[in-house]
Amino acid sequence: MQEQILSIKTFGARLRVKDGLFEVTVPDLSGAGDHRVEQFAPPTVRSILLHRHTSASADAMLLAEEHGILLLVLGDFDMPTLLLAGLQPAGALDIWKRQIALGGTPQGLEFARDWLYLKLQRKLKWLSKLKSYRHGEALRAIQDCEKVLQEALLQMKSLALRQVEKAADTLRGLEGNAQRAYLQTLSFLLPSHLRFDGRSKRPSADLFNALLNYAYGILYGRIEKILWHVGLNPYFGFLHGDTRKQKNFLFDFIEPYRPWVDKIVFNLCARKEASSQHLRDLSGGGVWLNDDGKKMLALAVENVFHEKKETWGERQYNLWQTIELEARAFVRSILPQGKDASGPEPAPATVQI
Questions:
Q1: Do residues 62 and 184 both lie within one domain?
Q2: Non-local CB neighbours of 217 within 8 Å, separated by 6+ positions
Q3: Which of 18, 234, 328, 334 has the fewest CB atoms inside 10 Å of its own CB, making it the most exposed?
Q4: Tens of pLDDT along 306-345?
Q5: What are phi and psi of 136, to 5 degrees?
């Protein structure tokens, strides 16, 4: 039976239970009384996402817990804020235990290194394509950047991980140096009026960084939902510190997928599809995307992540599906043999209400 994700986001929508089914009512705010009602059998629902200005009854929460359905409450920027979990230990508990046990160990750090390694490989693959139709100074800039990234890969591969804290610092340093060379090269390849001076986050200093920050926000939100869906806890990471107040595992796991977003942002700038018209000035200095800029970028990200394919086994999947498949593969790799809380299938369809 095909499972689905219920994403309840229409203003005033209510999740209730009727005759053993989930019932979602979307009120007619015009006053005509033409409310929209949809029902879903619990076995067809994998998870429920509650957005701001929606509600769920206690009966609906209890029905979700009874059927092992994940219920997430989303806050600003659709980021998961609250997880509803039952009092009985669930399959995810075994995964969380393994995540915690791997923290601060060479084995855990090896996973983080592999994700950074894949990130650099994807950057090199993209740079090779950029190099194929450039010459002169642009070509030399790409070639110089490739050397920096290739050297970082070699040092990462040969790095001993026994002294975890020292090795983690070294990994962060190698990745940071490679990132600076990479961004400097991307900037040089852009039209002169769109060039930027490194990363700026809060606030963004230029168009490229404003686009990149918002695109990374989209990526963070979607990947965090994927992690919860497959049973992983975004907070129990290996490389990005050990504080439980930050989503350190999310920061670790997201690394290989950043180059896909970098490419989208770069192409929007290089093709002049994004411009200063998509920005608004902030009172304290810096810029941020305006509503038109956000819509343009969100559409570009969704189009690429749904249309571009990656090969997994003998089949091809879109990028969102690929990310979930890789998350599930990680779960299988850390659980004891014979325990698999996460099957190989990609994410189900999302029903937006």
A1: no
A2: 77
A3: 18
A4: 999 998 888 999 999 999 999 999 999 998 864 554 445 5
A5: 65, -140
